[in-house]
Design a protein that fits this description.
By secondary structure, the chain is an alpha/beta fold. Helices cover about 40% and strands about 15% of the residues. It has two domains: about 190 residues, no CATH class; about 100 residues, Diaminopimelate Epimerase, Chain A, domain 1, CATH 3.10.310.30. The strands form two sheets. A five-stranded parallel beta sheet has the order 1-5-2-3-4, covered by helices on one side. It has a five-stranded mixed beta sheet with strand order 6-7-8-9-10, sandwiched between helices. The longest helix has 24 residues.
């Protein structure tokens, strides 16, 4: 690619205005909005796709959603489930990038998976370093061991997930060949902040209440700043399912290989099967459904 496209970052429920994006747009690692939470597909993803119109060059994603079938005949959409592809970068090929042609904007999810996908696209479908696709899969599924490079980037992004400057620097660092400089320095500094948040997560994890295969924790208003992903993973060391409640919302997570599918179980209409967010008011019914699913799974083994 002769020039670096504009880099923009988003999440399924917080998409930018289509009119704010330049030229032809490729969308990477951004799930279709779930039907069971928030405004749903039509008012978010559907509206965004309609407003982009012919400027949408490609949409590549690996999150479950029942409306994937509706786009199966549209060659601009390359959609899979989490079970089919544990991460988005492995779906991007040199042939895909070449066929798509020049793009002006890359809009990607703001986690490691999304940024690695953006870097791979900019590099014409080539991994930014050998094993980068595998690293993205390890980080997104939490199965296996990532390289120190990916671990540092993951920690940096989790500590400063609202920092768009850091996200751009991560992509530039990957595209530029992992060279020393301001990009690497920024990543290392942000990763150091993560270590302090991880320590707070370990302290908070001691407060989990464990019952019926679920580790439950409601964060206090004065709880120290922590990393929620780390906190959920620590909960999964105590039970199959970990639940963290914070500011009126509940995050529910389980290991990728657990066999649980919260999207289907809780009728959420799309998303990552083993990590979802729901309003706290739905939590009592959700926990009952999860306990039933765990009992059925255990009885079948």
């Amino acid at each position: 690619m002769s020039r670096l496209p504009e880099l923009r970052f988003a999440s399924p429920r917080k998409l930018p205005r289509a009119g704010s994006l330049d030229g032809r747009v490729v969308v990477l690692d951004i799930a279709f909005a779930a039907e069971g939470i928030g405004k749903g597909f039509e008012k978010t993803t559907g509206k965004f796709i309609k407003n982009l119109g012919a400027r949408l060059a490609k949409w590549v994603d690996h999150h479950d959603h029942p409306l994937h079938e509706s786009f199966a005949r549209d060659e601009r959409f390359v959609l899979a489930t989490k079970a089919q592809h544990g991460a988005c970068p492995e779906m991007i090929t040199a042939q895909m990038v070449e066929r798509t042609g020049p793009v002006d904007t890359v809009l990607c999810h703001f986690d490691l998976d999304g940024l690695y996908a953006a870097a791979k696209w900019v590099l014409g479908g080539k991994e930014p370093y050998p094993g980068a696709d595998a690293d993205a899969r390890v980080v997104d599924t939490r199965i296996g061991v990532a390289t120190k490079e990916a671990e540092r980037i993951d920690h940096a992004l989790r500590a400063h997930w609202l920092d768009d400057t850091l996200k751009r620097r991560v992509v530039l660092y990957l595209v530029g060949g992992l060279k020393a400089g301001v990009e690497r320095n920024s990543i290392e500094e942000a990763a150091a902040d993560f270590r302090r948040m991880a320590d707070a997560s370990k302290q908070l994890a001691e407060e989990y209440a464990v019952e019926g295969g679920i580790a439950y924790l409601e964060l206090r208003s004065d709880a120290p700043k922590c990393d929620k992903t780390e906190l959920l993973l620590l909960g999964q060391q105590q039970a199959t399912v970990s639940i963290v409640v914070d500011a009126g919302n509940a995050t529910i997570a389980a290991p990728f290989e657990s066999g649980l599918d919260f999207v289907r179980l809780l009728d959420l209409g799309g998303g990552m099967p083993t990590r979802v967010n729901i309003p706290k008011k739905r939590l009592v019914d959700a926990m009952a459904a999860i306990r039933t699913a765990l009992a059925e799974r255990d009885a079948a083994t």
